[in-house]
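Minimal example, chain plus nicotinamide-adenine-dinucleotide.
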Amino acid sequence: LGRAGRLVSHLRAAWLSGKTRPLEYRVAQLEALGRFLEEKKQDILEATASDMGKVRGVGNELLSDLPTGKGQSCFGSGTEVPFLQVTQLDSAFIRKDPYGVVLIIAPWNYPIHLFLVPLIGAIAAGNCVVIKPSEISKNTERLVAEMLTCYLDSDCFAVVTAGVEETTRLLENKFDYIFFTGSPSVGRIIMTAAAKHLTPVTLELGGKNPCYVSDTCDVQNVARRVAWGRFFNAGQTCIAPDYILCSVEMQEKLMPALREAITEYFGSNPRESPDFGRIVGDKQFKRVRALLSSGRVAIGGQTDEKERYIAPTILADVQPSDPAMQEEIFGPILPIVVVANMDEAIDFINARPRPLAIYAFSCDSKVRVRTSSGGFCGNDTLMHVTLTSLPFGGVGNSGLGKYHGKFTFDTFSHHRGCLHRNMGLEAINSPRYPPYTQQKLGL
Ligand code: NAD
């Protein structure tokens, strides 16, 4: 069986015992999770800070790494539905059943948040859960492995620390649901492994999120909102605006406004700013730095390998064939690609894989109406993710499935159509039983 196999069997036995089904049990586990967040807040902040160079503000409640869980869980397992006349003495309902033993695989960029929010929904829905944090955010991984399981019931919840090799072996086991957050290329590997067991998946992936800026916008406000979204967590945010599409005139107007916003947020030397982060690792640093050779560096461009520092950078006149336009940037670099007008921007977006988010600064809804993406935010960046009333997820290359708020509970529930029939009034059933005489057929 191996270690992973034994662990999954242990959780499956607990699942089959029905332990996770009572509402009181789920509430108690969610409360324990709340205590973990409350009591270990300082440890969590320190671990994420040492992994990410996380800085003031990024640890706040807004988009950050310490969701309280409030508003993320939602109970309610049964919904009555209308019924037909022949079943009027019956009871018909949709039962939201837990799937069973589920696997949550998380990336490193918000190393707590991205396993915690799905975990809340998985517990609320009544599942047993294996959590696999990213091995790249190693301090957070260690903390979660050592401390989280002291709070949760270890018969039903486990943390596996695993790199690629061990995760590959973990995926050989049969899970009843897999919730994966990470890159599209690993998403394909996860879906292939899940297909062997016909295991349903949610894939929360990444990609290049376009940000269209029309000519009629308030340039200062656009610059502030875009610079905030791009440079939050040093650009390592799956829904960060990845590149700007605008006219050549708007590019000229944006430049001083972006410079002003960057200086306002991070001072004249962002390296000294307590509000500007670092790239997570050396490999990632080298990859992002190589993208600086695109277009012309209009703002920033300084790097320091020892610190894994890349200054907030704006690249102007970037060509679609440049390196920065070939992959998700996932760092503090913002290329501007010049387009003639909104129609050309729409064609540009539609010629590429469907992104996780599209941003459009415009009073015209055409960009939203004529494109497809996981989510959309008009006249701002990132903010749609803060509403738990909105589903969050990708489409096409940016993923499949949705979560946040009640959608997380639904994701981790099988919607089981149920009918309980009345045992009386057998006579009304006779038309459906053979023999199908001419009288029964109404001939
Ligand atoms: P990644 O795909 O490299 O890794 C994600 C997880 O998969 C990690 O836990 C890792 O250990 C595991 N993994 C890596 N290679 C594997 C393999 N071959 N087999 C099995 N498991 C493997 O992603 P990352 O670098 O950690 O995160 C960055 C990516 O995640 C970006 O593309 C970003 O856009 C995306 N992301 C998406 C969301 C979202 O909500 N849609 C959120 C955050 C990040």
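The pocket of nicotinamide-adenine-dinucleotide is lined by residues 105-109, 114, 132, 134-136, 164, 167-168, 181-183, 186, 189, 204-206, 238, 328, 330, 356, 394, 399 (CB under 6 Å). The CA atoms of residues 149 and 158 lie 7 Å apart.
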